[in-house]
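User: Hi! I have a protein structure encoded as tokens and I'd like to know what sequence might fold into it. I'm fairly new to this, so please keep things simple.
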């Protein structure tokens, strides 16, 4: 059941949440901790989540989901009671933030309004993102599926991230692609994990070209028109901006 140790832990986490607002929101500078607690929706949503999560972990029925629902109505921020949230999360403004059931958020993470840490489809089990420490996710960004955003990653506003993001990388766009890793533009094909080489598709393309050449040679030698080609959907070339080039 809920014990004194849990309450003490929750109190410590709330103190750090308020400190995170002071450190990362310029608008909170000079505002007292109680005023931040009373008027910052991101801090209130976390407070509600800390309580809901403690009750959820203790096996209390109904209350955790009821608290999460009330918190969503009050703050516009929806956090599933089962989601694991580290210390020092700061949700700026907050409206429209959704954090799913199996999401895990590390320490000192910053989320802006409209961020989704969501699942894809109707998969069960671990289906939401894992966010490392010191990650920043810009407003409106959607991080979908059981992907991992490693330590220190940044996600640009309105990005859609469907793949793992390496440590200290900046990812922007839809689909999200790296424009910086450790502060530098990624160079070379190894840095491009969106357009990975596809050896099977390459082999089939090459075989298709050789069969066509053979059919043409056979048609010339025998004077017979080649059989009409089977209805094979052409391979789609990968086009567009190369994310490795930034
Ligand atoms: C992604 C972000 C964190 C990167 O900041 P940064 O580390 O200072 O990086 P830069 O601004 O130098 O941007 C790096 C590159 O990404 C591009 N970029 C940055 N943000 C982008 C975005 N949201 N969408 C598309 N491209 C973006 C820049 O144009 C730049 O491109 P270049 O390599 O061609 O020059 C920042 O741009 C961002 O989106 N922050 C979220 C802010 C937010 O949501 N604020 C809400 C306040 S209410």
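Assistant: Happy to help. Inverse folding works backwards from shape to sequence: for each of the 246 positions I chose a residue that suits the local structure. Here it is:
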């Amino acid at each position: 059941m809920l014990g004194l140790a849990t309450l003490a832990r929750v109190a410590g986490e709330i103190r750090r949440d308020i400190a995170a607002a002071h450190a990362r929101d310029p608008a909170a500078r000079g505002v007292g901790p109680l005023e931040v607690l009373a008027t910052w929706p991101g801090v209130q949503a976390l407070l509600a989540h800390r309580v809901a999560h403690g009750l959820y972990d203790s096996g209390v029925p109904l209350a955790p989901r009821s608290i999460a629902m009330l918190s969503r109505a009050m703050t516009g921020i929806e956090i599933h009671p089962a989601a694991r949230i580290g210390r020092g999360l700061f949700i700026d403004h907050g409206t429209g933030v959704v954090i799913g059931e199996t999401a895990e958020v590390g320490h000192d993470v910053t989320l802006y309004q409209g961020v989704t840490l969501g699942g894809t489809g109707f998969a069960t089990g671990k289906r939401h993102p894992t966010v490392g420490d010191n990650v920043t996710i810009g407003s409106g960004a959607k991080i979908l599926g059981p992907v991992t955003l490693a330590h220190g990653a940044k996600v640009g506003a309105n990005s859609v991230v469907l793949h793992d993001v390496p440590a200290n990388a900046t990812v922007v766009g839809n689909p999200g692609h790296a424009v910086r890793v450790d502060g530098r533009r990624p160079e070379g094909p190894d840095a491009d994990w969106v357009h990975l080489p596809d050896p099977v598709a390459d082999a089939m393309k090459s075989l298709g070209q050789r069969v066509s050449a053979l059919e043409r040679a056979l048609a010339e030698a025998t004077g017979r028109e080649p059989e009409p080609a089977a209805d094979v959907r052409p391979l789609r070339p990968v086009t567009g901006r190369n994310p490795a080039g930034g």
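A useful reference point when you look it over: The pocket of coenzyme A is lined by residues 92-93, 112, 136, 138-139, 154, 156-158, 170, 172-173, 179-180, 246 (CB under 6 Å). Feel free to ask if any position seems puzzling.
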